[in-house]
Amino acid sequence: MAVLTLAQALNQGLEQALAEHPEVVILGEDVGRTGGVFRITDGLQRRFGPERVVDTPVAESGIVGMAFGMAVGGMRPVVEIQFMGFSYPAFDQIVNHVARIRNRSRHRFTAPMVIRMPYGGGIGAAEHHSESTETIYVHTPGLKVVVPSRPADAKGLLASAVEDPDPVIFLEPIRLYRAVRETVPEDPHTVPIGEASIEREGTDVTLVSYGAMMKETRQAAEVLAERGVSAEVVDLRTLVPLDTDRLLASVEKTGRVVVVHEAPRTLGFGAEVAALVAERALYSLQAPPKRVTGWDTVVPLKKSEQYYLPSVGRIVAAAEETLTA
Amino acid sequence: MLQLLTPSGDVLGEPPLSVDLTRRLYRAMVYVRTFDRKCAALQKQGRLATYAPFEGQEAAQVGSAAPLDPEDWMVASYRDAAAMWMQGYPWELLIAWRTGDERGGRPPEHVSVLPPSITVGGHMLHAVGLAWSARHFGEERIAITYFGDGATSEGDFHEAMNLAAVYGLGVVFFCQNNQYAISMPRTAQTRSETIAEKAIAYGMPGVQVDGNDLFAVFTATAEAIDRARAGDGPTLIEAVTYRLGPHTTSDDPSRYREESEVEQWRRRDPLERVRIFLSERDAWTPEWQERLETEASTEIERAVELAEGMDGLGPARIFEAMFDELPPHLVDQRAEALRSVGQ
Ligand SMILES: Cc1ncc(C[n+]2csc(CCOP(=O)(O)OP(=O)(O)O)c2C)c(N)n1
Known about the structure:
By secondary structure, chain A is an alpha/beta fold.
């Protein structure tokens, strides 16, 4: 077992997917010769050749639409969209075709494919490079949506996504690519899609998050602990299908919930969590649910990003508010 | 523009098809015309949802599908029932889909035809990917995709043409230039003189054929299919034809075209010239025609019965094909939907 960054874990996961499954092909802009702008596919074209790790023209709709055909034909394409903000040219393909073919052909044709998208802010990137618009895909029936926050989960969820019989949107937190390290099993392993992880047990308040914001959420739990508050931390890991049981059990236990994400607030994933809690666990609540989110604004550029992304302070404050409610 | 059989039934050069094959394809054209007219009538009675008729385009669809191998992939759109049937899609499923029953979107196992695309343009890319999968698995199959003149203005036309050419894939891009995209005439759709010439920009051959000429369509498509199967890459075919009917049953073409124009195209009917050709070779008689029409009607009426008789609709169907395994939130929602109708 080696200590790997999230980026390295993904690279290893992709390498093993290519080695294990001859029908897996990686497609994307610059994924071959350069190993992708984030180097997630580094070295893979050298090992597997340009027919398995395919540099494509700059054509998101084309890449996804072509990969759709490959998947219907029996292959397992793994598409890299360079940044989530550039997935929109492929939106029609994803929503109208990838997500629907099983339904419109009544199971006869399916599109088992993975669409990887680096997402999220915090690295001072150019405009359109910091998007966190997972709600769009969560809201689309027929897609699974996965967001790892740790190297081992990233590798395990990727393996599950590749083997999944349905299309998976695989969101990769850009700012955690090289910011988190942990030991990752060398051998191929899977982490099931649809299972949240209770990362830290607690009794006073449940902090719910996923992906990039798990970093601040974990730190907030530490700060709260220093202040004598026992926070339970839930990493959702999969947004569709959501592990409602684990989520609600935690909220029922603590009676308080704070949801954290960097996506805009209105109809962000926090709205779904709050609605679920209201429908299913209202009587266990000791305080109204809280959302700590990005604002309903355009993601600001480098110099103002700090005012946009939820901070540890905002999460701690929200948790404390639930305790004094 | 490639033409081998003139509107008055004269063959230019040697006939490319045997009389026997011509008879079979003529029969197919009679069948699809019967289907088309039947569907338009059913729609008027409220038994089909909106219907997009293809009358006038029979030679384009039958002639291009005829040279395919049974396992070749076909990715077509809402107006292409004739081509889909030629490639094995059963009548009753073509009809069921048009009655508003999703089960019509599931062809039998041996039929390699995707459910028809409703979005204009997006499906051309799927043929590119299917051709790739065929190459990946070392299969002999090629992929053909059908689209209209309007679809060539979509970005996905460009991406599909470009990708197929870049990767040298076995795709036949079959454009039925039926002169209109709803109300937009072909001349307003693009400044290109022909649609076929767009192929030049992508580095692939482009051929313009008389789309109402069964022989020309068959010949050009057969060549493109051979090229695709031999690994020599994609071809764009523009079949110049005409939609004699409305865009769909909810369209009123008198708002954008003159009846005299329609009349002109009626004189270039794709069936008539083949009929003359056969008749001159003692291979067509009025009795045969009558028998064909009766057989076609009977067969299609039987299919309508089958399609309308498919039972087992209900709330649970909506949830049936969302994922390989229904996730918990959908299990809950299905139960709720069933409760809402007292089940
Ligand atoms: C992406 C998309 N845009 C618009 C429409 C609405 N629409 C349906 S058919 C059509 C015209 C298509 O014309 P053409 O490609 O020439 O094919 P035809 O209908 O003539 O066979 C339009 C605009 C659609 N279905 N999909």
